[in-house]
Amino acid sequence: MSSDKSVKHLQRIALALKIERSILAEEMAPCNFCLRSKRRCIAASASASRCSECIRHGRSSCDFQQKLPTMSDWASIDRQRKKLRDERKETMAKLMRLSKMEEALDEREQKMVELGVSTLEELDAKEAEERARTARLEQSAANLGEASPFLDDFILDPEALSGLPESFWNGMASAEPSSPGPPGFLTGTVGPGPDSSSFA
Ligand SMILES: [Zn+2]
Ligand SMILES: [Zn+2]
């Protein structure tokens, strides 16, 4: 080996090492030389002309480029990846729906136990009954609200109205919105209801 040759040899090794240590270097599908010599085929970039092993061994031709996926291969991979992502999104959404349904079912089961019913149909009926009752309560509360602005605070708590004497309700029936209110209502002669402290 002439000294000129050995310098070139060292330069090739240095270049090969530089490529292999570069953070931009990529491992490729092995060129025929790397395949035969069972080495990792590393190139500075996908557009490099030779891999580091071919450079190290002074081989003038390296075919790693030919083993690279073609543009249509890339496109196909991109399409497949997009399809997988879409599928994953759909699956996640479905999982969310399923866990919500499961939660709802758990809640209904809990309610069945609370209300002492044994089928979902019975529960439906009970719940419909409940809703109708609530609607009626809301309606009568609304009616009371119209009848007297004084009662606004009590609408949230219908219990507060129980225990009021019959005369109070009679007074309500005839009260005009502009009238000062039923007798006894503001003068403290009304008997103590469960929430009479709020009258003060
Ligand atoms: Zn190679
Ligand atoms: Zn090569």
Characterise the protein shown here.
The chain is mainly alpha-helical and 200 residues long. It has 2 domains: 65 residues, no CATH class; 80 residues, no CATH class. It is 58% helix and 2% strand. The protein has a two-stranded antiparallel ribbon. The longest helix is centred in the middle third of the chain and has 45 residues. The C terminus is likely disordered. The chain binds zinc ion (2 copies). The site of one zinc ion has 10 residues, from α2 and α3.
Mean pLDDT: 82
- Secondary structure: number of strands: 2
Bound molecules: zinc ion
Strand order of the largest sheet: 1-2
Please report the number of helical segments: 7
Oligomer: single chain
Please indicate the count of domains: 2
Biggest sheet overview: 2 strands, antiparallel
Determine the strand fraction and express it as a percent band: under 5%
Note poorly predicted spans: 196-200
- What structural class do helix, strand and pairing data support? mainly alpha
- End-to-end span in angstroms? 113 Å
Element order: H for helix, E for strand: HEHEHHHHH
* Helical residue percent band: 55-70%
Shape: rod-shaped
Region (Disordered): 167-200
Coiled coil: 81-140
Protein name: Zn(2)-C6 fungal-type domain-containing protein
Keywords: Coiled coil
